[in-house]
């Protein structure tokens, strides 16, 4: 049984194939080394598995109590321009009406642009 090549890192196409030491995507034409190490750094994903990046817009999927305050971040709150950081709370953002705070990616969903 042959091993299936990984999807294209550019367009995520599953129709990649290998020629000598290169992997090739027929859909976008991207070529990369089969021996290339995986992306360095950790990937941050939202509650449904979408990959998050700096500057994305997300919505909160459940009411979140703000530690040290009586405030609550309501479900459906839209947060623009997030910044990914290392740590337990992997998103730094400014929430309208509350201010700067850290969120866990498991409590947000990426808004498609």
From TrEMBL:
Ranges where the Protein YjdM N-terminal domain occurs: 6-33
Signal peptide span: none
Pfam family, one: Zn_Ribbon_YjdM
Annotated coiled-coil segments of the chain: none
NCBIfam families with a match to the protein in the record: phnA
Organism domain of life: Bacteria
Protein YjdM C-terminal domain mapped to chain residues: 44-111
Protein family according to the UniProt entry: Belongs to the YjdM family.
Protein's name according to its UniProt entry: Alkylphosphonate utilization protein PhnA
């Amino acid at each position: 049984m042959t091993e299936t090549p990984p999807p294209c890192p550019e367009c995520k196409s599953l129709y990649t194939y290998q020629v000598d030491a290169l992997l090739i995507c027929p859909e976008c034409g991207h070529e990369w080394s089969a021996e290339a190490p995986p992306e360095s750094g950790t990937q941050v994903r939202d509650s449904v598995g979408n990959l998050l990046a700096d500057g994305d817009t997300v919505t909160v999927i459940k009411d979140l109590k703000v530690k040290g305050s009586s405030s609550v971040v309501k479900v459906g709150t839209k947060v623009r321009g997030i910044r990914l950081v290392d740590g337990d709370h992997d998103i730094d953002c400014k929430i309208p009406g509350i201010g700067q705070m850290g969120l866990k990616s498991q409590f947000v969903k990426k808004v498609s642009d």
